[in-house]
């Protein structure tokens, strides 16, 4: 594991403010105090008080402040195969639990103690040699990733769903985690072990759209975040979001957002300053 960026923030009187974007790194985002919404991959997660979210690489995300005062920290990092990153389905389950956890019940006090320790460490960053700070922070992040798996397993299983709902949820999670990669219908069928035509029909019954219509939405939303929050060229954005042709990307983007990528970026940046990751 290698640290890319981190920060501790105390925001007062800025209800409605947003922070976030999209980047090719894993991220832990911890709310220590206050209320906020995390908009991540098309879903809004509520944080009322303490919360810890895991954000996967290349997934658009925005933190929206809902209370007068908000304290939080974040850490972006590269992962290696040996790092204890939870499975994708565990991450989605964990993020969805944040508004319903009793943080006083075991095993969660161990997590909240670690949340506070990371926050205090980040506030002391300038007083420590960088290598020692980084080693200490990465050690705490690894601990949190391990505890997340235990915390998610401690919850009671959700009520059973129909096969159609379960399949749609499985396909949604899969597409959200691999959308920058080349994907065919057979890729999805192999992953779910469903017949391709049956898969498409069942998915559309549940969501109102085909898997590839949803995949295209994911890619275009990610592209919009890259255009607004990075200095990547249109060609680079197209490739990073999984489009095989810049011409197809430009045409699809214009159909979705009303203008070509370069024009859309210029117009949006003229209206509001571009945000960094934080």
UniProtKB/TrEMBL annotation:
Superkingdom of the organism of origin: Bacteria
SUPFAM superfamilies referenced in this protein's UniProt entry, alphabetically: Homeodomain-like
Protein keywords: DNA-binding, Transcription, Transcription regulation
Domain HTH araC/xylS-type, first and last residues per copy: 169-267
A GO molecular-function annotation: sequence-specific DNA binding
Record InterPro entries: Homeodomain-like_sf, HTH_AraC, HTH_AraC-typ_CS, Tscrpt_reg_AraC-type_HTH
PROSITE patterns reported in the protein's UniProt record: HTH_ARAC_FAMILY_1, HTH_ARAC_FAMILY_2
Pfam families from the UniProt entry: HTH_18
Protein name: Helix-turn-helix domain-containing protein
Organism: Paenibacillus sacheonensis
Organism ancestry: Bacteria, Bacillati, Bacillota, Bacilli, Bacillales
């Amino acid at each position: 594991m290698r640290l890319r960026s981190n920060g501790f923030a105390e925001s007062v009187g800025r209800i409605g403010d947003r922070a976030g974007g999209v980047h090719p790194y894993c991220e832990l985002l911890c709310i220590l105090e206050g209320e906020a919404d995390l908009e991540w991959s098309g879903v809004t997660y509520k944080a009322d008080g303490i919360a810890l979210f895991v954000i996967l690489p290349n997934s658009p995300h925005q933190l929206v402040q809902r209370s007068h005062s908000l304290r939080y920290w974040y850490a972006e990092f590269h992962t290696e195969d040996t790092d204890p990153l939870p499975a994708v389905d565990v991450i989605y389950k964990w993020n969805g639990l944040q508004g319903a956890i009793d943080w006083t019940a075991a095993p969660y006090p161990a997590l909240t103690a670690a949340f506070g320790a990371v926050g205090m460490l980040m506030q002391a960053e300038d007083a420590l040699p960088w290598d020692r700070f980084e080693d200490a922070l990465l050690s705490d992040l690894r601990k949190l990733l391990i505890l997340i798996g235990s915390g998610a397993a401690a919850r009671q299983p959700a009520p059973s769903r129909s096969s159609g709902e379960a399949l749609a949820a499985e396909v949604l999670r899969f597409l959200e985690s691999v959308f920058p990669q080349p994907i065919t219908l057979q890729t999805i069928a192999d992953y779910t072990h469903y017949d391709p035509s049956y898969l498409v029909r069942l998915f559309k019954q549940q969501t109102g759209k085909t898997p590839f219509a949803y995949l295209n939405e994911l890619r275009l939303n990610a592209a919009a975040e890259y255009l607004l929050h990075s200095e990547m060229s249109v060609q680079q954005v197209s490739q990073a979001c999984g489009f095989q042709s810049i011409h197809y990307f430009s045409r699809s983007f214009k159909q979705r957002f009303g203008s070509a990528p370069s024009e859309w970026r210029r117009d949006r940046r003229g209206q509001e300053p571009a945000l960094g990751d934080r």
